[in-house]
Amino acid sequence: MQQPIYNPSIPFTGAIFGGMQEGKMVMIQGQVPQYAKRFQVDFQCGAGVSPRPDIALHFNPRFSDGELIVCNSLQNQRWGSEERKQGIPLSRGTYFELIFHLRPYCFQVSANGNHLLEYNHRLPFNRVDTLGISGDVTISTITFTSPGVPAFAPPPYTPMPAYMSPQVFSSPPVMASPTFAAPAFHKPMAANPSGRGATEWGRNPQCPGGGRRARGKKQQNLSVSNPVVPYVGYVGGLRPQQKIKIVGTFPARPNKFTVNLKMSSTSSIALHMDQRFNENALVRNSCINQTWGSEERDLPFLPFLPGQTFEMTISVHPTCYQITVNGRHLVNFNHRLQPLNHIDQLEVTGDLTLSLVQF
After folding, report:
1. Which residues does the UniProt record annotate as the domain Galectin (predicted)?
2. Are the CB atoms for 233 and 345 separated by under 8 Å?
3. Given a cut of 50, is residue 166 above it in pLDDT?
4. In the chain, fewer beta carbons within 10 Å around the N or the C end?
5. Residue 196 pLDDT class (50, 70, 90 cuts)
């Protein structure tokens, strides 16, 4: 059975092992960015570039062209007649789940657990051996299910706004050479086979002027397990009381590791934390419009040790970021870059292995 593909770089082109067979399903989980105009999923008959391979199903949601989905096929370099469906059940700034189910007469497509459309075969489906994804989209998981074989897939998935969820990127893979990691992208649950439960946040000192936790329904965190380093996640815009949890392990002789919270639109860094093991320093700073500010280095204790596992939490408060490590309050870093909801990207790089990133 083909293993899932996690965090592929877009554009992505990868082999479908064994090709498409009746009953086979391809499940794609990801996120549509706020700026999205369109993206496409192509079930291709080959992986060439020139000449372009035949495409059995071209699935093309268009957000800036009347909110519609266009389906078509490409044969001998010529497009057929378009099939258009008004309305897109995938919203900008939210996560989604698409399932492509191969039936004897059609591709059956569902979105977020609901039937979306059927596209009758125009080319023999047994010619399909490649999946292509491109455009304005980020993908967390691609799962392949053969007929009669249970899916190696994340737990049941409920789409929700992007600010409640991470989106993951990884270093660009060469054709059909993605990085695999398990378990999959999932929501924390009360209990699971790995023994991990829902995250419980410790009580830490509030930032000055930090205010009280907003009342009302508690927002549920989403997690990415065992992400690839360097890790880049799209968080959809920070908000007060949001918490970002990072769990990782350092090798015996690490050099450094870095965490950045950024505005993707300008590449400005709101919070830069740079652990430098050779200096026994955790440097905090901001870089706004390509200009670094003043460094902050004072620490009440050394939070990170070579060869050790750590758990770091960044809590967002109205006036500052509050950082705790292994349950101990470490430092506060006052906001230098506003508004918070424009800070939409998390980066983790350096000499470590990540076990969990949670928003």
Report:
1. 12-145, 230-359
2. yes
3. no
4. N
5. very low
Q: What is the largest CA-CA distance in the chain?
A: 67
Q: CA 279, 284, 289, 293 torsion: positive or negative?
A: negative
Strands 83-86 and 39-45 turn out to be unpaired
For the question of whether the overall pTM of this predicted structure is more than 0.70, the answer is no
What are the residues facing 187 on neighbouring strands? none
Residue with tokens 């059927």: 118
pLDDT for 352 = 95
Q: What is the pLDDT of residue 8?
A: 86
Report H helices in the chain.
Answer: none
Q: What is the DSSP string of 261-308?
A: EE-TTT--EEEEEEEEGGGTEEEEEEEETTEE---B---SS----TT-
CA distance 278 to 106: 60
DSSP annotation of 340 reads G
Of residues 233 and 263, the one with the higher pLDDT is 263
SS3 letters across 176-220: CCCCCCCCCCECCCCCCCCCCCCCCCCCCCCCCCCCCCCCCCCCC
Task: Give CA separation, 119 vs 26, 38, 122, 207, 231, in Å.
Answer: 15, 19, 9, 55, 36
Kindly tell me if the per-residue pLDDT of 230 is higher than 50: yes
- Residue 16 and residue 112: Cα distance in Å, rounded? 23
Give residue for tokens 């690490």: 254
Output phi, psi for 353, to 5 deg. -115, 130
- Cα 349 to Cα 111, 259, 293, 309: the distances in Å are 33, 7, 21, 16
Identity (one letter) of the amino acid at 140? S
**In the chain, what are the domains?**
5-145 (2.60.120.200), 223-358 (2.60.120.200)
What is the pLDDT, as a whole number, of residue 50?
Answer: 82
Segment 177-196 shows an average pLDDT of 33
